[in-house]
Amino acid sequence: MKLKIKSSDIRKIDAHALETYPHECVGLLIGTSEKGVFEVREVVRAQNTLNSPVAFEADPQFVYNVYKEAENRGLQLIGIYHSHPNLHAYVSARDAEFMKFWGHLVWLILGLSQEKIIERKAFMMRDGKIQDVELEPVE
User: Fold this and answer.
1) What backbone phi and psi angles, to 5 degrees, belong to 128?
2) What's the CATH class of domain 2-138?
3) What is the pLDDT of residues 43-58, one digit of tens each?
4) Is the pTM of this model over 0.90?
5) Is the distance from CB of 78 to CB of 122 less than 8 angstroms?
């Protein structure tokens, strides 16, 4: 499995994570998916309604609206991104619980400090198991 994402979109996500530090950021990845290749066409910032350094939640109505708008344009909600302030990019126990309901989506997780992004990793849950997804930046 592979997540293809433009370098400019990575920069947008990085900026979002750094702006919301020390709280987690959250956003949606809109694009296409075919044969295990997920291609991001648009990054949509969401507000973390929990305002928490250890958890995130996006308004369900906002997520629904983005989903329907994408669908109307022939695209899909293909992923969720969020940050882990002062931690590495890994699937937390809370993330794993939510992945059970959103298993068809790629989860892009950023580990960061106050000044910089430490790492970016992507994951999916397949058959109840968390799998790495290759992150492929494209121009």
Assistant:
1) 80, 5
2) alpha beta
3) 999 999 999 999 999 9
4) yes
5) no
Question: Dihedral angle at the C-alpha atoms of 14, 19, 23, 29, nearest 10 degrees?
Answer: -40
Cβ(83)–Cβ(24) below 8 Å: yes
Per-residue pLDDT reduced to its tens digit, 1-42: 999 999 999 999 999 999 999 999 999 999 999 999 999 999
**Residue 134 appears among annotated catalytic residues:** no
DSSP code of residue 113: -
Phi/psi for 15 (5° steps) reads -60, -40
> Dihedral of the CA atoms 52, 53, 56, 61 (nearest 10)?
40
Which is catalytic among the residues 19, 24, 34, 139?
A: 24
Instruction: Give the CA count within 13 Å in the CB-facing half-sphere of 33.
Output: 16
Q: What are residue 15's DSSP bridge partners? A: none
What one-letter code names the amino acid at 21? Y
